[in-house]
Amino acid sequence: MSDYRISLRRDDVLFAEISVSQARYVEMTREMRKRFPREEGFSLHIERRRELRRILEQGPDGLRLLGVEYRHEEVPEHA
Question: Parallel, antiparallel, or unpaired: how do β-strands 13-21 and 62-74 relate?
Answer without folding.
Answer: unpaired
